[in-house]
Amino acid sequence: MSDDAGRERLIARATALGHARRSSECAALCEALLADDPCDQRVLRLLAWARFESQAFEAAAAAARRGVALDAEDLESRRMLGRALSRLGATSEAIEHLDHCAARARDDGEDAGRLARVLAQSEAHAARARELVRGQRVEPGWSARGAHQWLRAAVTLGEREASERYACALLERAPDDPYFRSSVASCMARLGRHDEARAHAIAAIERAPNNVLAWTVRAMACARLGLEAERVECERALRAARAAKGR
């Protein structure tokens, strides 16, 4: 086996570890690969993602920044840099990178939606976020991830009409995904539509019994609807789901 073939095998192994959510092992292998070739863009992208998934946001930003330094038009690295900086509270710099990606946006709505969400989280940029959210209609080519980003932006701003619009788009694109369904449940709860919130939470739990957000929303909805026995059961299930997530 040639050295190149051996490296490709190791990159494939690191990628597989990432897919298996074994992010610490994935990152360690990426670091070893970069010791041999510090300019391998594929490995830098994978390392940034693995560090982000481990919530090591400073390390994720550092890896992504190296990728951007190698290629200023590498949108994957810029996207991750913006996400990591946002988590670190460096909102203005994060917006610069997310703006760059949104200007060259994919057709799935995710880059522009993520920009709107980060803008919405900052009081200084809320007016721009509100303008984007109110003006953005649902596009046929949006992915579920794109619709989800726009939904999160609208919910953060308390934009009711836009929240409903994006929630419907998300349900159309991913009706059986428990993660997205629980986000719709949370949205309905914020809109005060507790029956709908409970129904969406139940649907999410059927697909993913340890879905913490779904159990949280269901418990809250039951409290508002006066379903005391169900609320108590939800609280018990929520504690179990949190314990399972922590393992």
Distance between the termini: 39 Å
% residues in beta strands? under 5%
Quote the average pLDDT: 95
Alpha-carbon Rg, integer: 20 Å
Folded structure, characterized:
By secondary structure, the protein is mainly alpha-helical. Helices cover 78% and strands 0% of the residues. The chain has 14 helices and no strands. It is globular, with a radius of gyration of 20 Å. The chain has helices at 3-19, 23-36, 41-53, 57-70, 75-87, 91-103, 110-120, 126-135, 144-157, 160-173, 178-190, 194-207, 212-225, 228-246.
Features:
247 residues, mainly alpha, globular
Task: Give the SSE map.
Elements: H1 3-19, H2 23-36, H3 41-53, H4 57-70, H5 75-87, H6 91-103, H7 110-120, H8 126-135, H9 144-157, H10 160-173, H11 178-190, H12 194-207, H13 212-225, H14 228-246
Give a brief rundown of this model.
The chain is an all-alpha fold and 247 residues long. Helices cover 78% and strands 0% of the residues.
